[in-house]
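Late entry, evening session. Most of the bench is empty. Finally got around to the prediction I had been postponing all week. Sequence below, unchanged from the version circulated by S.P.
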Amino acid sequence: MLNALKQTNEIFVVDDDSAVRDALSMALRSEGFMVESFASAAALLSVVRMRSPAAIVLDVMLPDQSGLDILKALRAENYPAPVVMITGHGDIPMAVEAIKHGAYDFVEKPFSMDVMLDQLRGAMSSHAKKDEHTGSGDLDLSNIGGSTLTPREREVLREIATGASSKEAGRTLGISPRTVEVHRARIMDKLGARNAADLMRIIFSHNG
């Protein structure tokens, strides 16, 4: 990958939905950013290896290649710009996968422009202090939730942090997938997590 001069005020928006691209581009330009938008993985990859923007907003579902595959191709944990993933079909394993492969954050559609702007500002301001935890094996979950989580809920939380599905977690813990889902719902309620991506942010924020 070429080490081109970084354009610190430019953001790449990658989504095959023209309405999403246009809305994000308008909001970002109104905040003073330069924006270049792309409708496919191929279009992004033809540019991103020669230029490094301030940040990339990357949709998971693209017509020619998934956003997660792009993260892997760019080795996003080393790429000199933070990547914020967006999706309309998020789940916990997908959020774990995105974070493991270097995504700064994982935002589920529909989202407000204020939320996206906050995420991008946070991504750009903290990129110099990137999270060293690229895997989940060294995650410390002992302090999450304090005493509110039961021992079994903490076991389920660890399985969630590894990206295990309900079926896989149930097999590991010797309980049914439905029981895992019940525990997960209780964990999210106790931790104040609104969705899968929110839960992963809570987990990784305790290991920053």
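Two things to note before I forget:
The beta strands are 10-14, 34-38, 55-59, 83-87, 105-108.
The mean pLDDT is 80.
Will write this up properly tomorrow.
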